[in-house]
Give the backbone structure.
Amino acid sequence: MPKFPRLAAVTGALVAVGALAACSSTSTVSPASATSAAPAAAGASAGAPAGVQPLTLYAAEGYDTAVAKAFTAKTGIPVTVDDDSTGPLLTKIAAEKNNPQWSLFWADGDTAFASLDQQGLLLPYRSSASLTAAGTALEPADQGYTPTGTTVMAALIYNAAAVSAVPTSYDDLLTAAYRGKVGMNDPSQSGPTYPFIAGLMNQLGGEQGGVKAGEDYLAKLKANGLHVFPTNGDTLHALENGQIDYGLIQSSAATGEVLKVKPTAAFKPAIAYLPKATLLPGAIAIDKGAPAAVQAEAKQFVDYVLSPEGQHVMQTGDPSGDSLFWPIVSGVTALPQLPAFPADYQALDPRFWGPLEGQVNTWFDSTIK
Amino acid sequence: MAVATTGAALEGIGRRTAAVPEVTGVRARRRPGRGGWFLAFWVLIVAILVVPIALFLAVAVSPALLAQGPQWLTLEPFRAALTPQLLVAFADSAAMGAVTAVLAAAIGFGVAWTVQRTDLVGRRALTGGMFALLLTPSYLIALGWERLLEPNGVLDLLGLPAPGLRSVMYGPVGIVVVLTVKGIPFAYLAIGNALRGLGREFEDAVRVHGGGRAAALRMVVTLLAPGVWAALAIVFAESVSDFGVASTLANDSHVLVATYSLYVAVDSFPVQFPVAAAISWFLLLLVVVALVAQHRALRGRSFRVLGGRSRPVVREHLGPVRTAITGAAAAVLVVVALGVPALGAVSASLIDGLGSLAGSHRWDLSNYQRVLASPDLAHPLVFSAWLAAVTASAATALAAVCARLLAARRHTAAGRALDLVLLAAVALPGIVFAAGYIFAYNLPFWTVLHLHLYGTTALLLLAYLATALPSTTRVLAGTMSQVQDSLLEASRVHGRGAVRAWFGVVLPVVARPLLTAWLLTFAAILLELPVSQLLSPPGRQPVAVGIETALGKYDFGGGTALEVIAVLVALAVVALAFAAFRLLAPRGWRVIGRTR
């Protein structure tokens, strides 16, 4: 028995009061103050038209909050944005599997979407928006999710102030000129990197022999002094401090670096695209288990994202980051600061390559890293 | 009189004690509601700790239970987890955790002794340094080292290349250094609180009976055993469950540690909760070993030295030589522990492009101006400060009860169970713990009952409370094990009720440790990341998530500036709290542990 039963009681009361206070603080949140991330867009349905259900958007895009805010302003449908990295959001979605709390999920990379789709978690939906050839190539056959724009993986960013050689193929990176000078991300920690590796495998051996061919290539790259860093930011940092001269990272991160950095005599970032560049789409999906009213509103949100107005908000919401994507909606032009869309690109079949992610990442961690 | 008193005190030290009969008069007046409160306490512990942990661990053997796979009963996740790499990782984690625990306890003891028992000039700054260290996430310490040592890093730019030091620090030695640095404040608080309650009568007794300085020190160390073992257990558990170093220095130097394998299972796609749960079982096993060691070391001994008559300690005067040595050691500790991470933060937030070929390398406040002007700073920081204050208040109160249970004169089954649950909570990394909360409080039947805890600030607070409780309890355990039952019993015999008796005679002697525990919890929760990331209500972002988001978008300057501001806010709270205690607390509350 505790020595101080009443102290325990007082403690319990304190905890209960704290919890109740917290509950009340949550329930009284107004739409205008619900979130620092989405101050005007988020919240309960307090100020919404009668019968409108609030949407919960799990999103890992730099412009997600801006788009949610604009959507709410246009439709009156409140959107609560849970803005985080892709990894934690996927962890939440997996943990919530027997009682999902999200209405929409929006992030870069379609392999995870394909896997969620194969698990029966996504509502098929096809917006009426017209897509470009690249957009059409990215659409899943069953419409389980919708591509909203694309980056490519990988862009080769290099320090033009330190090196003059620019590779034109992945095989070039295996030569002595690039020994110890190339870096890439760890696919276990960097979401966009598995699609890059899968793209290499697909390019080198197709779906039949691609895994083996890709593993052989990466083993040779390692033998030639490949450096592995956790994420885009770490690889960029290694490029900045001269640890490497060439980095294989996501195109939006590479473009952002070129726009951000003032060239000096020691550091001048430049970008090249090696054939084939693998498309890495931003994708959005609707929870199949959500109530019908929520699903109807979520479809409106998807339509808005693909509308010219929604695309404009995407292009202005995160100017030096995720807004640096190539549009896939017909009639929407890319931002002028983006380079031309790589001519030689490929779209992976995420339903084939998605399920291999765990196996390939484990191999990479134990063999290449 | 003094000799008689100290001699009597010495009689009970270190020997195995027979159970002392309870004060029957007190027990006879048990009221009908007592069992109810006991039940309420355990319901709370089960709700915030046992259920989330148990459900997460259950996924390892029954994935279908929580929709994480088709099998209702399987051992497959253990087979998948038991790779050769994982076994190496566990061996590495256990070895580095043990070395870290011993080093941190030794250094923490040294710091506590220096602060409380010597007249070293500037000793108070060491206390501030311990809190600053407590606030510094382990990944920031690791990144500080990397910034210092990396190619074209700070040392290279200063013309002091240190490739030898780089190769040493980018390996197990570096990981132990960082984990030790992070463990020192935990050890300092656990041992320091116990040391503070130790009057000088014991050392006097040794000296009066002919013992030398070394014998007196041995006596002190023996009496501080609960605090020392608490420090060892906390630091070991914190080290084996740390991910900050695993994801930075260990990752970059390709050293396998157990938590990294666990995070790969949870934080990459496809998410493998069953495998993560299997790994968690092994992590738990490591911590149980620590618990058993602690239990065996303290079994049957009494360390009750904290009473109302503890005598103020006289500070030891250090001569010039010892002052120089102690001061130099303190300076090295501050530079290694705080200077390096501060350098990491400064280089990222204040100096344009330090450690990089890009940028002007000039001092620049633009990151701070940008962060301070952004509404994204104020709301998360205020929100997190409020959460941290509520959590610290609740956790300190609850931890006082838990620590008292752990320190009970007779080790009950309840005490042992509580001990295991609390250490299990430390052993499981935050993200696992948070996932357990989702499993437990997002079950469909809560919706049927119209109880929507998941996604609310209330559940986030309860998870914070559960996260903080183990460390806070351990920090208080040393002190609580020193409180003599006779204090309370005497008060009860003289007619006071239980609550009035506790506030009247126990609170004064434990007030400062309680304040320390509150500040520890406040500081830890203010920048807590994994639980915040998974359990914060959609749309309400704690400051740690804001920092992580900024770093994730390659805004290292902005993210680090936000982190520095949060740390400064926490340090201001610590300073204000100690100042308020000094100015406002009754004199008697400040007497225990006072030196002269």
